[in-house]
Design brief:
180 residues
Length: 180
């Protein structure tokens, strides 16, 4: 068996290489963990929940606005019919037709009163839905800001680790080149 004697200076260099290799392994592990964390940020249940809640709130608000628009249209139509019936009243002298027109106008006025009550309720519902939607959007946007900040932090960590690995690889090559 041959005894291999390695000078102390070269042993120290080999230990330096071992330290560099260990640090590279640790940095690679950190990079993988940071990359996994980046992926997890986009699949996070809170992220998915907030996106869905914002979409649902927007849909509900759109439905409430359509209901309100429909009520406003019905009120406008009833008012137009009252105007038309009043004009017809002015141009007729027949008592039966006048009575029918008055009944129609009274019916339309009652319908307008009912529709205006529904319209006020619809406005309240829309306003509540709008406030809820705004709250959800604010929560979602705040979450996005925190997530974006965390993503930037992780990406910066990854970039620093990769830069450090490049430096270590050069140092390792220089050390190994100096060993005979």
């Amino acid at each position: 068996m041959t005894n291999l004697i390695v000078p102390a200076s070269e042993q120290a260099r080999l230990l330096d290489v071992l330290e560099i290799d260990t640090e590279v392994i640790v940095l690679n592990r950190r990079i993988r963990e940071a990359e996994s964390a980046l992926i997890a940020l986009d699949t996070d249940s809170d992220y998915v929940r907030l996106v869905r809640e914002a979409e649902t709130a927007e849909d509900r608000l759109d439905d409430a606005q359509r209901t309100l628009d429909h009520l406003e249209s019905d009120i406008k139509t009833a008012r137009a019919r009252i105007t038309r019936d009043r004009e017809r009243e002015e141009h007729t002298n027949e008592p039966k037709e006048l009575s029918e027109l008055e009944d129609e106008i009274n019916s339309l006025e009652a319908r307008i009163d009912m529709l205006e009550g529904e319209e006020l309720e619809a406005i309240d519902v829309r306003d509540e839905l709008q406030a809820a939607r705004d709250e959800i959007i604010a929560e979602r946007d705040s979450f996005f800001e925190r997530r974006d900040a965390r993503q930037a932090e992780l990406q910066s960590d990854i970039a620093r680790a990769k830069d450090r690995i490049e430096v270590l690889v050069r140092q390792r090559a220089e050390i190994l080149a100096g060993i005979t």
